[in-house]
Design a protein that fits this description.
- The protein is α/β, with parallel strands linked by helices.
- The chain is built from 16 helices and twelve strands.
């Protein structure tokens, strides 16, 4: 009994030990399993976070690339030019008649129908209302004395403001020397012909032009058809002669450049004349046809030099003469596509205002009627038509050409824009 009891107690003790060991094994197992799950969870979470960060970085990089690419692809925008926009708006609101009128500079007699105009009054007002031309040119017949001239021009400017038209060019031929309307009639500073001063250099050319400009601007003029950019290389040429600044092309280029600066700084617009060069001709285009056989290469190396330097110096207009350049075509330069569009605008890269010489001169007026001549000039590339023999006929000719499609209105707009851009430099566009 006693031995059996001891054995039984031992068995129970061992059983308890085994059960305890089993619970310990189970507890340890649970502990490792739990920690293993946490580690796995942390690892997975870390991977997810890393993946998310990678995806975010990739997305951000892609977005940055997209923005950079878009920025590279966008063309740089042109700076806004308020004055250009203003001019475009003015043109958009102009009638065809108003646009075409801007392309004419005529005498006050041609505008009003009077034989001699020395004042600006009701007739000028009614005529400008109907025909708001780009400008008026005055000659000795219009000039009596200083006060009368100032009053005439002052009243004309008051009229343009009253009727709300675009400001006019008030022009005169005041070269000095033999072509000097104001010096002859009004006693402004008198000069010898410009050729006389050639050996005095740039300073004299500038000073003479500056003085002329100050004199005529104080009278009320704002445009001078000067300087002469022809080079006097033919001694038999009397129509130009000593009106030229020199008989040497390079010297003429320097002097003309100085003169342009003098005119502009003296307060007036100026015009180089007479493209492509009238100094080597014999004939006078006032009374007959004039020709020149100069080739493109000869013109480039010689006659063009003063025009190029004058353009670079800031000349406001280039006046095209009626010389027929036989190496190019058989028509006067003023109606020649070769001379205006191909040479002046093309080779010389001039994009300013082109004005014809007077269209009442015999070299063209005896050959073409005013309406046909006006159309030919515009088709060749001219912006302003100077003094047609019959202004109203010339205007009607242009109107008919636009309405028939011979000349596009866009072509007219190009000229009007050049004219208004030039006017806006010194004049207030009050339309």
């Amino acid at each position: 009994m006693s031995g059996s009891s001891k054995n039984g107690s031992l068995f129970k003790f061992l059983t308890l030990i085994c059960i305890a060991a089993l619970f310990l094994v189970i507890a340890v197992g649970f502990y490792f399993i739990k920690n293993s799950d946490k580690s796995s969870s942390n690892t997975n979470s870390s991977e997810v976070q890393n993946n998310a960060e990678s995806e975010t970085a990739a997305t951000t990089e892609a977005a940055t690339d997209e923005v950079t690419t878009s920025a590279d692809e966008v063309e740089p925008t042109e700076p806004v030019d308020p004055e250009s926009d203003k001019i475009d708006n003015i043109i958009a609101n102009m009638s065809l008649r108003e646009k075409l009128c801007q392309m004419f500079i005529i005498t006050p007699e041609s505008l009003t129908g009077f034989d001699a105009v020395t004042a600006s009054g009701d007739t000028t007002k009614s005529c400008l209302t109907e025909y708001p031309v780009g400008g008026l040119i005055y000659f000795s017949i219009n000039l009596e004395d200083v006060e009368q001239t100032r009053s005439m021009l002052r009243d004309a400017k008051a009229i343009e403001k009253e009727i709300g038209c675009i400001p006019l060019f008030y022009a005169v031929d005041e070269e000095g020397g033999t072509v000097a309307r104001c010096a002859e009639k009004l006693g402004t500073t008198a000069f010898q012909p410009m050729f006389t001063y050639k050996d005095q250099g740039d300073a004299a050319a500038y000073s003479n032009a500056y003085t002329i400009a100050k004199d005529i601007s104080e009278l009320g003029f704002n445009l001078d058809f000067a300087p002469v950019a022809d080079t006097w290389t033919n001694p038999e040429n009397t129509v130009i002669g000593q009106r030229a600044y020199s008989n040497d092309f390079k010297e003429a280029a320097k002097l003309v450049s100085a003169a342009v600066k003098g005119f502009n700084e003296g307060g007036v617009y100026c015009s180089l004349k007479h493209f492509p060069g009238h100094g080597d001709t014999i004939e006078d285009t006032h009374v007959s046809t004039a020709t020149s056989a100069k080739t493109a290469e000869e013109l480039k190396n010689n006659e063009y030099l003063p025009f190029v330097s004058g353009i670079e110096a800031g000349a406001d207009m280039v006046m095209v003469g009626h010389i027929s350049m036989t190496a190019f075509d058989s028509v006067p330069a003023s109606i020649s596509i070769s001379m205006i569009t191909d040479e002046l605008r093309g080779k010389l890269e001039y994009d300013g205002v082109v004005i014809t010489d007077s269209l009442s001169m015999a070299a063209v007026a005896k050959i073409y009627p005013p309406d046909e001549l006006a159309v030919k000039s515009v088709l060749a590339g001219a912006d302003i038509l100077l003094m047609p023999e019959d202004f109203k006929t010339a205007l009607t000719g242009l109107e008919n050409a636009v309405q028939s499609g011979q000349i596009s209105e866009e072509r007219i707009n190009q000229s009007v824009k050049r004219i208004l851009e030039l006017k806006s430099k010194r004049l207030e566009l009050n339309k």
